[in-house]
Structures are given as C-alpha cells and as structure tokens.
Amino acid sequence: MDVDLKQVEEAAKELYIRALKMLPPDIKSGIAALARAETDATAKAILGTMIKNISVAEDQSNLLCQDTGIPIYNVSIGRDVSVDGYALKQAIRTGCERATREHPLRSSVVHPVTRANEHTSCGRGVPVINIDFSDLNQTLAIEMIPKGSGSENSSWLKMAIPAEGVDAIKTFVVDCVLESGGKSCPPTIVGVGVGGTADLCVHLAKLAATRPLGSRCADPEGAQLEQALSAAVNRLGVGPQGLGGDATAFAVHVETAATHITMNPVAVNMQCHSARRARATFTPGGMEYGY
Amino acid sequence: MAHYEFDTPVDETAIRTLRVNDTVTLKGTLYGIRDATQIHMFDRGRRTRFDLAGHAVIHTAPNVKKVEPSSAHPAGYAPICVGTTTSARMERFTRPLMREYGVRMIIGKGGMLAGSLAAFAELGGVYLAIVGGAAALETTWIERIEDVDLDDLNPESLWRFRISGFGPLLVAMDSHGASLYTELQKAAAGRRAAVLASLGVK
Prior knowledge:
The complex is a heterodimer of chains A (291) and B (202).
Chain A: H1 5-21, H2 25-37, H3 41-60, E1 70-79, H4 85-102, E2 128-137, E3 140-147, H5 149-152, E4 155-160, H6 165-180, E5 188-195, H7 198-209, H8 220-233, E6 249-257, E7 264-271, E8 278-283, E9 286-290
Parallel strand pairs in A: 1-2, 5-6
Antiparallel strand pairs in A: 1-3, 3-8, 4-7, 5-7, 8-9
Chain B: E1 3-7, H1 12-17, E2 23-33, H2 35-42, E3 56-59, E4 63-66, E5 77-81, H3 94-101, E6 105-108, H4 114-123, E7 126-129, H5 135-139, E8 142-149, E9 158-173, H6 180-198
Parallel strand pairs in B: 1-2, 2-3, 3-6, 6-7
Antiparallel strand pairs in B: 2-9, 4-5, 7-9, 8-9
Helix pairs in contact in B: 3-4
C-alpha cells in the first residue's frame, strides 16, 4: 500500500480538531458511570457539569477544553506499507500547523527559554511524533492526542531500587495522586510506567495514561497492579477537581518493560477527565476516522 | 450554603459575607489573566491600563479569532473557547494582585495555597472554583471580549470579558481562613496509611 501524504496532512489537521471537540465513547461512558456511582453531593454536581459540557461542545461544535495541549501524534505503520518516513513527519507537522491557523486554535506551544509562541502549535521537537510498527497488513494508523498541561504537569519519575520492591511502586502511585490533588483535573486516568530505562519508563506512563478505558495491560503482572491500584486510589477521597468525593480516577493504567538488575523505576503521568484522542486509519479501501 | 448574585465590581463587605461552600454567579466585567501576564506585571515592571479594583480575575488564556472590530467584537477578537487553567502555578501573584490592583475574586481550578489564603483573610478576597475542562459551557457565559491589554503576550494577554450568568461558582477559599482544598487534602492524607495497608505495603 502506498500512502498519500496529502491525505496524511489533511488527516493530521482534522485529527487535532476532532480530538479537541469529541470525546471517545469509552471516556463519555466512564464519566457517566462515575456520576451514577458518586455519593458526594458536590462531586455529583461537578461530574454533572462535565457531562453537560460534553453535550454543549458537541451541539456547538466547540472545543471541550480551552487547553489545546501539546500535540502528540502516534504513528503505527503496518506490514507492506510503503511510505517516505521523513515526508510523513513533515506532512503531520504541516497538518498540525494548518489546524492551528485555519480553525483557529490557541497555540499553547512556546520555546522553553524565550517563551516565544510561533502561533502554530509547533516548535522545536513539537508536535511530538512517535513512530512504531505493527503486524497489521496494509494499515497505517495515526492517533492524535492533545495533551493538556494541567495533567501533564502532574508527571513524576522515581528511580527506586530493587530492595524497595513493588511496595515502592504502589506507594509512589498513591503519593503522586495525593500530591496532584485537584491540579490534574480529576477524575483522571493515572498512567503508570514500571521498568525500562528512565526515558522508557516515562514514555510507558504516557502510553498508559492515554489508553482507552476498559483496556488491560498485556502483562498479567501489570494488569494485577492496575486492578489493585485503581481500587486503592479511589479510596483516598480526592474527588472530582480535588474537591472531595469518590471519583478520583477513572482507572489506574500500567505499562511495563523489562529493566536492569539494579533498577526499579516507576513513572506517573496523568490524563485529565477530558481524555481526548482521535484516530485515522489508512487501508487500501480508504481512510477512516475513529478513536 | 447560600447563593449570591454579584454584579462586578464588588466591595469588601460583600466579599466578607461569603463562606466556603456558598455559591456565586457573576455578571458585568471579568478579567482574564495568566502566568505570563502576571510574570510581566509583577516581575518585569509592566502595568495595565485596566482598573481591576473590586473585580474578579479568571486564570485563563482563551481560544480567540481575530475579526474586524465591531460593536459585537469591540476588541477585534471573537471568543471561540474560554476555559480555566490550574491556579496553583500563579500562587505568588495573589497578594500583589490584591494589594496593588485591589482584585477581590480569583476564579480558577485546583485551588491555591497558604499564601493566597492569608492574603484573602488580610485584604478581603475569595477563591471561586469553576469546573476545569468545562470550557465549552463556560464560553456560553461570555457575552463578548470588550478589550485587551498587554496583547504582545497573546494568548496570555490581559482580557476584559463582558459576562452574564457566569456560574454558579463554588466559594472554595474564603476571607475567614477556610479552604476546602486544605480540609480535603488533610482528610485524603489521613487515609494514606489505610490505603497503603490495603495494597499490602509494609
């Protein structure tokens, strides 16, 4: 399959806008489920406002949240796909710039030292473009995630040591949820990376935070951790917006990787209640949008 | 737990009547302010021509569209999506905002810290919590962008919005030393040991 880069550019533009306006169905039903189960009156009202906001955004075709985030594109290239990788990255970047100028969107991206804003949502190394390969035949998928700063500022890495064991991982996650409080816009998806190198560990936490609700970690050890931690953090009473209640997190998601005999790294990256993502899938039959 | 309707600006007496868990709906003028706005105002010696005395400021940097100035869009900007950002980053600016400019209400999400709470008690101010991430709804409470200052910092300019029915907002920190965030953080921290024990942490 040959990939049409003009179509990729168009999709990169459209995906940014779609992600900002329409929440994936798993997140929408996740908020509804939390609202039904909530026992605290203030928390129930806050969750109700979030649900109302989703329908206002849909009715008016407006952005769910003002924070257009740092744009992230996750590209998954299947087998028997022919594409110029360098040009693919250029096409995504151009699509991202066009979304910002043509909609228009607030550019939330600045140079880290001068704080200069190019008003394109782009800059050095941004949009973040991650490229990986899959075993799907003749399929190219692009997932777009506008990562908001309230939740991204709630990110931590701890290079724990083997003697501290899995207790260090559990304690770290609970303490990060406490430390984050209302700042990460809860209810959140708490993304946890376990193992790897320092950078891989943080990347795993981001993958975990942006996974669909209802998905499980492919590693049974990770799946067990996410089940135990999901129940635990929701007993802290942080609640929606940090104002108390049952609904602190939709879930804790864990991703794992092998690590060094001397290492026990754990990272946390949060995703806010407006857990936005959009996906475009290219196959020989055409291009389709989804989540 | 009472509900109040305020027409901005307000005086100190009105602010002192508010207690945590009360709710407030605002109309009139609202100012939008952000990290860079306050860094420039308080660290780099810039002043705004706006009179913020008795007013509310909201921690925001909106999505806007440049348009021809008209009566509907006097500043040449149409609001697209106006939301709220995490307040705690701007903690150290609460006191100078109140002391130098007479600001009485700060609207934000996630709460502020001890320095702000002390400033609210001393100078007569409150923190009003809005639901973060509910910006599409919040935008329906904005009538228009009336004016803008320090616009070289766009989108972190100092925005003047005309609002109506802006709320209900929750009084989460009052001028009598009460903060819902402090109370809830203390309660959550108190549950930490039991939660860790339930995870089998030794």
